[in-house]
Amino acid sequence: MRQPPCPQKEKVGLKKGPWTPEEDEKLLAYIRQHGDGSWRGLPVKAGLERCGKSCRLRWTNYLRPDIKRGKFSSQEDQTIIQLHALLGNRWSAIAAHLPKRTDNEIKNYWNTRLKKRLTKIGIDPATHKPKTDALTANLNHMAQWERARLEAEARLVRESRQQLGLSSSSSLPPPLNNKNVAFAHLTKPPCLDVLKAWQRVVTGLFTFNTADNNLQSPTSTLNFTEEMLPVPYVGFNNDAFVGNSVYGNCVVSTMGSIEILGSSPENAWWAGNAMELEGYPADALMVCNAVDQHQQSSSMEGSENFDAGTSYATGFGENFDAYATGFGENNDYWNNILDDLANVSLSPSGSSVF
DNA sequence: AAGATCAACAACCGCAAAGTG
DNA sequence: CCACTTTGCGGTTGTTGATCT
Fold first, then answer.
1. Nucleotide closest to A6 measured between CA and C1'
2. Which domain covers residue A88, as residue numbers?
3. Within a domain: residue A101?
4. Cα separation of A205 and A53, whole Å?
5. Which of A83, A114, A120, A200 could form a disulfide with A94 if both were Cys (CB 3.0 to 4.6 A apart)?
6. Is residue A83 domain-shared with residue A203, that is, in the same domain?
7. Which residue from A145, A178, A174, A135 is spatially nearest to A158, judged by alpha carbons?
8. Model confidence over A101-144: pLDDT tens digits?
9. Whether residues A228 and A314 fall in one domain
10. pTM metric for this prediction
11. Are A113 and A190 found together in one domain?
């Protein structure tokens, strides 16, 4: 025979709903004097018109002195996501790894924030796998962007030709003077053939090497063949990637291997479907559908979270819905790009890379 | 300014396992 | 072993304040 969930609730006069400060003080005073436990008889002894279960919940989830309240840190966010990928909705087990946080608080935080955040970036919070429809949406978004870029590029090429006195139908490329090189820099960021890049993701050419869909441990290794990953990828230290249920910081850049390590509390991390673009050197490019977990930047331009010194990045994140670019400070890299561009024709479309 | 909607959080409910006499 | 109580857990709902229209 099962007891009712709250044995005293049949009695009239038992209070429900939010606790008042006076009730909290009564409960605290009683527990200070007698300790917790024996919840059934506690309310009467403590002078509370509550059921014992309600008192226990209030104590364990709110009044206990060893509870930390307030904003979750990015480190805690990461831990929760990692553990949820591993353990599922076992909130008490997750809470055991987060000192001073209650399972109820973690559960609420997951349901109201983290779950939405993952959904927003195209990760199914139940499976921790990318959602196909989200990938398609991203692809459409990026296709629009690519189309706009090509149109702008074509327009600028037409304008530059007009300025140089060439007819629009001329098949001859304009002379490569400094002006054209400048245009090349502005209108033809290298290797932005994102459609092909994303196609590689969608068609699964670039797969993580987790045996199943669960995170096996806080440290995993992702492997690629050289063919899949023709350029060494330099992970930005303390960047994190979310993909195929893998979370962690990408810190290794050896050919064909990306190692996912544990988190770093003081650094921002990025969640998204990230990949390098082939054909450029290790410190070249990445496309990242990103979320700034620190929620401190409304744009990725100039963001210190990217290794801006050597990277060109494009992405759209939680706090903004437009592409932003972050040109680094490493002029050598961009000078090299300009040198490359000086050696190719300024055709209005197409990339020299793909 | 007022009502509607949303987000965040606290609390409740039901179930099950563990404990006790 | 049984009947009952206590405790723990996870899903869900209710409340409140902020934001939007």
1. B13
2. 74-120
3. yes
4. 54
5. A83
6. no
7. A174
8. 888 889 889 988 888 888 877 788 888 877 665 555 555 555 55
9. yes
10. 0.49
11. no
Is the pLDDT reported for residue A63 higher than 50?
yes
Q: How many domains does chain A have?
A: 2
Here the contacts of A59-62 (C-beta below 8 Å, separation 24 or greater) are A59/A27, A59/A31, A60/A102, A61/A102, A61/A104, A61/A105, A62/A19, A62/A24
Residues A263 and A320 reside in one and the same domain: yes
Is there a domain that residue A93 lies in?
A: yes
- Of the two residues A242 and A37, the one the predictor is more confident about is A37
At A250-270, the pLDDT tens digits run 322 222 222 233 333 222 233
Q: Which nucleotides of B are covered by protein (CB under 7 A)?
A: 7-16
Q: What percent of chain A has pLDDT over 70?
A: 33
Compute the distance between CA of residue A76 and CA of residue A214 in angstroms, rounded to an integer: 19
Closest nucleotide relative to residue A55's CA, C1' based: B11
The reply to whether A21 Cβ lies less than 7 angstroms from strand B is: no
Å separating the CA of residue A116 from the C1' of nucleotide B3:
27
Give the CA-to-C1' distance from A265 to C6 in angstroms. 39
Residues 7-66 of A with CB under 7 A from strand C: 7, 17-18, 37-41, 52-53, 56-57, 60
Chain centroid to CA A193 = 22
DSSP for A139-152, please give it. Answer: HHHHHHHHHHHHHH
| The pairing of beta strand A312-315 with beta strand A324-325 | antiparallel
Give CA–CA dist A174/A302, Å, rounded. 33
pLDDT tens readout for residues A275-322:
332 332 222 223 233 333 222 222 232 232 332 222 222 222 322 222
For strand C, the positions having any atom within 7 A of a protein Cβ are 3-12, 14-16
| Cβ of A69 near strand C (distance < 7 A) | no
A103 and A160 assigned to the same domain: no
